[in-house]
Amino acid sequence: PEKGLKDYYKNYFPIGVAVNPRMVQPGPDAELIKTHFNSMTPENAMKMGPIHPEENRYNWKDADAIADFAQQNNIKLRGHTLCWHNQTPRWFFTDSTGKTVSREVLLARLKRHISDVVGRYKGKIYAWDVVNEAVPDAGPDLYRKSKFYEIIGEDYIEKAFEFAHEADPAAQLFYNDYNTENPSKRDRIYQLVKKLKDKGVPINGVGLQAHWSIYEPSAQELEASILKFASLGLKLQFTEVDMSVYPKEHERRDHRDTDKSEFTPEMDEKQAAQYKMVFDLFRKHRDKITGVTFWNLSDRSSWLDNFPVPGRKDYPLLFDQNGRPKKAFDRVVQF
Ligand code: XIL
């Protein structure tokens, strides 16, 4: 059989991919997953909105299809995500008259949600992103002013971890966030996680999303993150790796040049070099890294298509629009 990414990396760490329920139906996507990946994360299917659309109704179908595929094919499964300010239904925060609920009610809802979802996949999901993106991008604050924070207070985070731990004491519990190479945000995530750890909150790891571009981060910035987060003594995973061919919004200098939506030979080359740089560092720090997951399967479809710029296609992954390995793939497996 064809040698897959996971085979090249079998002595390093599991290689994962974010999937939607269509991809696990028989077909080329499912084959690509089976060849290259030994870990999966549901891209959306286990988020609050999709899985718990109404207070007394769960939609298990899509999440179950993904969990079944993982089990049948001996692929590890990460759960994503139990508590996030996005993709959370309005009902969560309001009562039947539309009034915002109290701290007690919201905590009870969070507890029920987490015990039901974690409980259902107990033994099938080895790691959960318990709280996602709780730290603001800029400013001095540790806590994003989300509804969870406003209604419950800062202890919503430790409560979420406690609820998850009660529901599956064997699952590894992660705090997950992005922009972790930004020095200010990196420090504030570090402080938040350190506080949790020092308090005895059942947290096992930090997930660094890694929504990067062919222009950033630099090797120095990335290595600084790896060393800083590893110093917490927790597990470290790269949970949502992709490499946009466009500069991130805040450093886009020339919109005209970057909005053509073509994958140029220059982008191909620059992306291969950037992927090589980050995987060289991942391998160098294999003793600290317990998983690397790509956010989507191939350039045929990525969450970065039309985001953040409507009408713009992106090419952030190792496989092209036909599922064939790109130059970046070759660089990642040549070592
Ligand atoms: C994204 C999905 O890929 C999209 O399909 C969805 O519309 C929005 O969310 N950080 C996360 C992921 O933790 O859950 C997000 O996934 C991407 C950014």
UniProtKB/TrEMBL annotation:
Keywords: Carbohydrate metabolism, Glycosidase, Hydrolase, Polysaccharide degradation, Xylan degradation
EC number in record: 3.2.1.8
A Pfam family the protein falls into: Glyco_hydro_10
Gene Ontology terms describing biological process: xylan catabolic process
Signal peptide range: none
GO molecular function: endo-1,4-beta-xylanase activity
Domain GH10: 1-335
Catalytic function, reaction form: Endohydrolysis of (1->4)-beta-D-xylosidic linkages in xylans
UniProt-listed InterPro entries: GH (IPR017853), GH10 (IPR044846), GH10_dom (IPR001000)
Family: Belongs to the glycosyl hydrolase 10 (cellulase F) family.
Name of this chain's protein: Beta-xylanase
Biological source species: Larkinella terrae
High-level lineage: Bacteria, Pseudomonadati, Bacteroidota, Cytophagia, Cytophagales
